[in-house]
Specification:
Layout lengths: L3 H11 L4 H5 L5 H9 L6 H11 L15 H17 L2 H11 L10 H15 L4 H14 L8 H16 L3 H15 L9 H17 L3 H18 L5 H14 L3 H16 L4 H8 L4 H5 L6 H10 L4
Length: about 300
């Protein structure tokens, strides 16, 4: 078992601080020594003060203290998530290949992260959908029971849903994402679940839309927007805007459809999201809404030019 003193010592050394530097106006130098040696456990107030001085959130490391190298595990997980959100699965593979050399990623639960990355690369870069379905089912079958309701399991179900969808097996795709939804539905107040909650709910909207359950799309979309406002996160919010636009159009609420579609267009004009726009543009009413005379022709032309759309 690791202890927080190891992390404190590691960051202190990386920043070039002596124990005296770190302890100044906080505690005694000897107390820092005892913490780093594992003979004292710092109070929450001390951890906050050390965090400010070291310019790192030490509280974030408590969930990794059973690792051999907590800093490397935490840093790699952040990199994994960054590239997953970007859809850059070539980079996912590269950082995964490097992480596999670390002992922590050869053990559960961190091994699940490696497997999730490996299968995501198979799906999104190699188009090996049927093989990925077999691997995901095997992974889910062998996952330890204590992780059945974890983010690992939710990620497995999301990849399973995508693979089934890409093989036109919509019933199994829907069942998989609903299994993921069951895992995350009561975890809104847990910060580490924020990204997987957003991913699951966007995937649910997609499946409801493909199943012609347009009122469920609208309900899920409004719930997701409320959740993102509460956590002050607007990542991938363009998906919600577009699916709300599509669903409202399908129920013939054309004014609402237009307003949500405008929000979607404006959202993807900030930054550069070519993969997201490509996927969204394949939906059946996308071009109908693009040609809607309620839309500003100038913004549509700018959007087409930015994303090379005809």
């Amino acid at each position: 078992m690791n202890y927080i003193g190891n992390v404190i010592k590691e960051y202190r050394c990386m920043s070039g601080m002596s124990r005296r530097d770190l302890s100044e106006n906080i505690c005694s130098e000897k107390y820092v020594y005892l913490i780093e040696k594992g003979e004292r456990t710092p109070s929450a107030d001390l951890v906050r003060l050390f965090s400010d001085k070291l310019k790192v959130d030490l509280f974030d490391y408590y969930q990794y203290l059973d690792c051999i190298n907590p800093i490397a595990v935490r840093d790699n997980l952040r990199i994994f998530n960054m590239y997953r959100r970007k859809g850059d699965f070539m980079s996912v593979k590269e950082v995964t290949d490097s992480a596999m050399n670390l002992p922590d990623f050869q053990c559960k639960p961190w091994l699940y992260e490696i497997e999730i990355n490996r299968i995501a690369y198979m799906i999104w870069f190699q188009n090996r959908y049927k093989e990925s379905i077999n691997d995901l089912n095997a992974l889910m079958k062998n996952i330890e029971p204590k992780y059945f309701m974890s983010a690992y399991a939710a990620n497995i179900y999301i990849l399973m849903s995508a693979s089934y969808q890409l093989t036109n097996d919509l019933p199994n795709a829907k069942n998989a994402v609903l299994s993921a939804h069951e895992i995350i539905c009561d975890k809104n107040k847990i910060e580490k679940y924020e990204q997987i909650i957003i991913t699951v709910r966007i995937t649910c909207m997609s499946m409801y839309y493909l199943s012609d359950e347009f009122h469920k799309v609208i309900h899920e979309g409004n719930d997701l927007l409320q959740y993102q406002y509460e956590i002050n996160s607007y990542e991938r919010i363009h998906y919600t805007y577009f699916y709300l636009a599509f669903a409202y159009y399908k129920i013939e609420s054309y004014n609402e459809a237009t307003e949500w579609f405008k929000k979607g267009i404006y959202s993807v004009m900030h930054g550069h999201k070519p993969m997201d726009v490509y996927y969204i543009s394949t939906q059946d009413v996308f071009n109908v809404l693009m040609n809607n005379n309620r839309m500003s022709q100038n913004i549509i032309n700018d959007f087409k030019e930015k994303y090379n759309l005809s």
